[in-house]
Amino acid sequence: MISVAKIKKAASILKGRVIRTPLVYSPTFSKVAGFEVYLKLENLQETGSFKIRGATCKILSELDRIGKQGVVAASAGNHAQGVALAASRAGLPSTIVMPEWASISKQEATRGYGGRVILEGQSLTDSLRKALELAKEGMAFIHPFDDPAIIAGQGSIGLEIMEDLPDADVIAVPVGGGGLISGICVAAHAARPEVRIIGVQAETCPSALKAVETGERAEVEALASIADGITVRQTGSIAFDIIRKEVDRIMLVGEDRIAEAVIMLLERKKILAEGAGAVCAAALLGGQIEAPAGAKVVLVVSGGNIDISLLDRVIRKGLSWNGRIMRFKVLLDDEPGALARLLMIIAAAGANVLQIYHNRGGPDVPVRQTRVELEIETRNFAHIREIGAALGEAGYNIELSGGGSGR
Q1: What is the Cα–Cα distance from 200 to 225, expressed in whole angstroms?
Q2: Do residues 204 and 223 touch, judged by C-beta distance below 8 A?
Q3: In a domain, 407, yes or no
Q4: Antiparallel, parallel or unpaired: β 369-377 and 325-333
């Protein structure tokens, strides 16, 4: 069992070795929610994620049991980087087994922290199998979440939250394997038993929710998600014992809402969060986190390691979800001035053209016409409806696509 004494010991090990991340008040999210919202910014942690806490605690607390061959772990991202850096600082070699589809940027980041990367398999299960084989050869295996030292290290976040905000009423935590939320639970409840702990998962992989509902840690189907950092098919056994006793509620959020949260954190708070790090903000934006006016609610932003290519797609998706982009198609007479007249209406409506594509060769495009596809920047869904009405009044028959149809 994980005790607060173990977490405090972990915190003493971590002092001066990891960043004590800030807990900041957010006027923007507070206004949206109707109560006080604070953000625990683990995205500012070294390696860009809370994972460095557990990895450092595990390695330093068991140095006398780790041989010259060092440590081995299986991960597609944050755990990989945390273990690699923690091992390097301890003067140990590290081997990280990553699935073949792991992003190049995360592979290179892991190597940059001193890890030897082995690509193995098409799933984390395949990578884990390889890592366990290497552990039999003398390397010390570092589990990503189902380990007392790992959980104690992550629990140091809970200590920091309660020290900075002793009267916190609610703490919302992303949930993958459960190591983070279980550590925070123990630490927070020791300081303030009445604080409510809420877990947030992606709809695409509801492993902890299903485990709580059924009372069993069964594997669930995991679909692709922008919150890939918490796509864990089965909750850890140690974490599950804590979650079912101490977590008040586990809720699910969808992909569109996660994308919206990433955008809002970036645009309004200048905080870069990966999908997994934004799920608590997503739950808040969706009205799923409830608290009375004046309540103090903490959202744990667990990490900020998002690939640039994925960030670009998330931004575009998030802007569509927020009514900030309107996409539509329209047939125009293929004659001089036709496009200019259309653009004048758009300009008069206060929108900005982002992209234009002409299609003259489609089988359903009349010979004397051209299909024009436009992507324009808008303020909100009301603005989209205004533009649609203006185009309709001018005689244009537009076909909305993507997120431009409004809610």
Answers
A1: 14
A2: yes
A3: no
A4: antiparallel
Cα angle vertex 19, ends 13, 22, to 5°? Answer: 125
Query: Domain tally for the chain?
Result: 2
Q: Are residues 243 and 358 in the same domain?
A: no
Task: Give 286-321 pLDDT, tens digit per residue.
Answer: 999 999 999 999 999 999 999 888 898 888 877 887
Helix residue spans in 165-226 (DSSP H): 179-191, 207-214
Please enumerate in sequence order all residues whose Cβ is within 8 A of that of 59, keeping only pairs 6 or more positions apart, or say none: 66, 71, 83, 86, 87, 90, 92, 142
Domain hosting residue 355, numbered range: 324-401
Question: Which one of 265, 290, 322 terminates a domain?
Answer: 322
pLDDT in tens, 385-399: 999 999 999 999 999
- Whole-model pTM: value is 0.88
Assess whether 5 and 141 both reside in one domain.
Answer: yes
Determine the Cα–Cα distance for residues 118 and 111; give it in Å rounded to an integer: 10
> Identity (one letter) of the amino acid at 124?
L
**CATH number for 68:** 3.40.50.1100
Residue from 173, 167, 220 nearest 194 by CA: 167
Q: Which of 298, 322, 346 is the C-terminal boundary of a domain?
A: 322
Which residue, 322, 264, 319, 277, is CA-closest to 26?
264
Element (H, E) at 23: strand 23-25
Contact indicator for 25, 10 with CB cutoff of 8 Å? no
